[in-house]
Amino acid sequence: MAAAAILRRRALPSSCRHDVYIRCLLSYSDLHSSVNSANLRFWRGYHNSGKIDLTDMTHPHLWYPNAREKKRKVFLHVGPTNSGKTHNALKRLEASSSGVYCGPLRLLAREVAKRLNEASVPCNLTTGQEREEIEGAKHNSVTVEMADVTTEYQCAVIDEIQMVGCRTRGFSFTRALLGLCSDELHVCGDPAAVPIIQRLLEATGDVVTVQYYERLSPLVPLKTTLGSFSNIKEGDCMVTFSRREIYKLKKKVEMAGKHLCSVVYGSLPPETRTKQATMFNDESSHLNVLVASDAIGMGLNLNISRIIFSTLKKFDGVCTRELTVPEIKQIAGRAGRYGSKFPVGEVTCLDAEDLPLLHSSLKSPSPIIERAGLFPTFDLLSVYSRLQGTVFLHPILERFLEKAKLSPDYFIADCEDMLKVAVIVDELPLGLYDKYLFCQSPVDVNDDISTQGLIQFAENYAKKGIVRLKEIFTPGTLRVPKTHNQLKELESVHKVLELYVWLSYRFDDSFPDRELADSQKSICSMLIEEYLERSGWQQSGQRRALPSLPKLSQEYDAPQLSKYFPEIDARSK
């Protein structure tokens, strides 16, 4: 490493050699342990002298020396939804001797791992909450945050690269783009990302080739609205942007008496989303219409004939706004899947006033992505905290981000949620790295139950060094929801259980009840699915008699199931 760093120094102007050399060192994960009390005064003086500015983030490609040792061949596969771009990249991954797929969602990572294993290419699955290791595997399918930038691969794939511009997660895509150490790097996404990717990779010396794709099947924007709900037909997908609206539309469709609906939205457990999508796709299923949020935009293979927007406005956490061109195109593009029962896709609205925006958006190119997300590594924050003489994470983050210097091609990721968690963990006797991990955890700070779960996990860990799930959660107490509010509460409980599993992979033996948490997650999903079954309109006026019970009985014994379904006890008597 030292020799390579010296070679890089020689290729740089003398005015920035010291600065870049130190940043190269900062990329190594054991650096913070080397900054001990014996040399801390030297580092602090060196930083304060102006010779090295730890907040200078203008050359982030140098944080990844392993990747910089290679002259990577980068292939950009860009085009609209349903154009085959990711399919071609995955074919190259299948043919490689070793490789990694990096996707934005656990559902996508799982789908790719399944595809490779079925093609006799052993592939591990690694997400924040899942680890599945296959014997002899030299391929990995991961969520982008889990990308390993220290391992060498023959081939790497990054999917949905336009998310490099996402204000919250964009920095993870930047990290993968700059840091993956592979001979070939295949990057898939919207053409709007091409200019920024080309600019970022100018500094790396990689060879970049761009391949453009056209949509494989037609997408037809209709000139008329849906009209009456009696015009809903098999294969339709109604899109709206809140849980309550989804269930209102589901009820309206089913009250028309012709169809039953699957539902897909972000708060549903991933397993439930997958099962709902599977039932919608199954031609023998009674669920032949889908009601969904923009969660269908990526991550699920859906046989949709027609997309029907109930509105082109959504609340984004800050305000209610019109959908952007990329959002409209991403969702609309899910209609008419190539090779499916509905090869020609259609798209329309409920409200005639929305048709002009829909039509103009589908004709327009997505706005060019101007900048990519960036966030300092823990090692950089660790050294900075020691130089500042504090282990309080919140002021370190605020101070660092306030002083951070970036090139025009980058922006600092929105870390508002991380700062909220930092305020909580700074009150506890924890080390900086432990605090950082809690801040990185997938807690929903807008969900009171999820946030309370994080607080209790952090407090118990700080006090005892070990967190038992039963101290804050009693197995056997979950029930099938009967109301919308109870459903929301059960979704929140699922988030807490997922948070425990995520923490168990980071804190080793301190969170020992992973198997229990996993089993309770499965039960949460099962109960939510049962709620969805029971909420469906039935033409006969009577609900089907628990059609899912035979399958459930294969996974859980009858005494266990009877805790959640009193009907089972009644049947056995």
Plain-language structure description:
Residues 1-43 and 539-573 have low confidence and may be disordered. The strands form four sheets. The chain has an eight-stranded mixed β-sheet, sandwiched between helices. A six-stranded parallel β-sheet has the order 9-16-13-10-12-11, sandwiched between helices. Helix 1 runs antiparallel to helix 2 (14-26), helix 14 (378-388) packs across helix 15 (393-403) and helix 18 (448-464) runs parallel beside helix 19 (484-506). Strand 11, helix 11 (270-281) and strand 12 form a beta-alpha-beta unit. The chain has 23 helices and 18 strands. The protein has 573 residues and is of the alpha/beta class.
- Helical fraction: 40-55%
Main pleated sheet: 8 strands, mixed
Uncertain regions spanning at least 5 consecutive residues: 1-43, 539-573
The pLDDT mean sits at: 87
Strand element count: 18
Strand portion, in percent? 5-15%
Number of distinct helices: 23
Through-space gap between termini: 72 Å
Strand adjacency order, main sheet: 4-3-5-2-6-7-1-8
**What would the principal axes of the Cα set say about the shape?**
globular
Global structural class: alpha/beta
Radius of gyration: 25 Å
